[in-house]
Amino acid sequence: MTLTLADIRAAHTRIRDRIHRTPVMTSATLNEKAGAQLFFKCENLQKIGAFKARGATNAVALLSDEEAKRGVVTHSSGNHAAALARAAKLRGIPAYIVMPSTCPQAKVASVRRYGAEVILCEPTYAARESNAKSVVERTGAVFIHPFNDPRVMAGQGSLALELLEDVPDLTDILCPIGGGGLISGVSTAIKSINPEIHVFGVEPKGADDAAQSLAAGKIIPCTSPNTIADGLRGSLGELTFEEIQRHVDGIVTVSEEEIVHAMRAIWEVMKIIVEPSGAVAYGALVDGQLDVPGRRVGIILTGGNLDLDTLPWMTPATA
Amino acid sequence: MTLTLADIRAAHTRIRDRIHRTPVMTSATLNEKAGAQLFFKCENLQKIGAFKARGATNAVALLSDEEAKRGVVTHSSGNHAAALARAAKLRGIPAYIVMPSTCPQAKVASVRRYGAEVILCEPTYAARESNAKSVVERTGAVFIHPFNDPRVMAGQGSLALELLEDVPDLTDILCPIGGGGLISGVSTAIKSINPEIHVFGVEPKGADDAAQSLAAGKIIPCTSPNTIADGLRGSLGELTFEEIQRHVDGIVTVSEEEIVHAMRAIWEVMKIIVEPSGAVAYGALVDGQLDVPGRRVGIILTGGNLDLDTLPWMTPATA
What we know:
homodimer; about 325 residues; alpha/beta; Rossmann fold; 2 domains; 6-stranded mixed sheet; about 45% helix
């Protein structure tokens, strides 16, 4: 199956009353530094603090009443967990979230706050999958994958419709790549509306499986990720890889230093909080790695959830 | 002289193309916590990272060509310094900024980036005043006070017009008080448009000169401020005290703990950066000090400029 602009438009219509229309912010200081016009789509200001609210809300809205009443399940230590818990709460159905036992307490608490049942498991991918499978067998709940699901991909892509509505004459878009759900939706929307806009994926050098996969023409799993950008440590899915091959113009990889510089510049200059994964797209520009003179560049800031006690440039105060 | 709504409307028309129309943000989480509808006017996202851009831009715009070509001068270690430097740059005139030599290098650098001449002086109020006076004698530049100036007060009040346009049915507004420039403009605008809206000033317990002054019926200077909210350590001016007496319904004082709680809650939940002074208004609600059940409360977040290496809940990483 192939994701279409119609899927994404339908997703947007379906979810728009349950998400924030996030602002597109600009900064004269960062424009001057880049020698370009930058347009930051602030999904860090989205419900639950990340774009994941879009895909999860769309997926839950698309369930039949029969499916919905059995609830939804996923495994995630990150923003998809909170997003799915919230989406289930909005529909009034159960959510079961499998989370690794090493997950920060704050993340577990935020999922529980939405009324979801949290199942803690060993911190391995195999344990996460088998626990999720047990939940499905026990409850009949519907599994909602964090990215390799057309309903989720279409939901994420809805942010591109808003961005193009606000800034129709973009020349380029920079979008982080983790599992590829976001860039699948975004690139499908953008290329369907205006194929002349360049869509670049950005990923950490320490988790450059998308660059490797595109070069190899097949999915190369991310086996030993080494990056502060914890949202981008996963591998591509079959469905997302297909869309990436079809639509994405290139992948830029960024160093850990560039990620932290980007994050700090956004905090200092724009006065908004992005998590490391959320700052990666701007990492392609912050130290001049990608040169975009005079262009009009959309930059997707994907999320703002992180532990304020452990910032990359600080050590915690001793009690 | 008395500040009027007409002054504030004229200021808004004069400056609106040179400032951001800052967003009014809401948070379901913080609403639930407060048991009220909260509307955050995000002046931390304003040009130069603070509402001070409004008053300085208005004051500079009102200079005659004759005055303007001699330039402007002020003394400030804070946001007014950057705001005046930027306003002067926009008009293409000189700016002279007297700053205490103890001022963080980052603040000095940000003022110089706007092309202003920085005059460093001893860190006393007397030294600041005498240095500013010398500049006036040497250059003929016009002194622009950070708050006790009707042009500045009218400019700051323009944010209230935007807030009421976006949320016409507010019941209360919480506004920080330092020198009183902001609350003078805001309370004049609000009470002129709808006298039923309550306007509360909020200040640190460790710099509660506005509460003392209102109680005494005369200006009680803030002689030994003790607060993390460095933008609120000054005393009221004659002009601002007059407006505060006329329009403000009450003053709430907040503890240092409440200020830090408020700041951290805004960072964590709203994903935006406010400085301690900028979070003070929300400090009145964060621990339930002021009870506003079911009301619709405007909260002014005034600025987002602070050193990210010295957050109140962290110690700097050792090199």
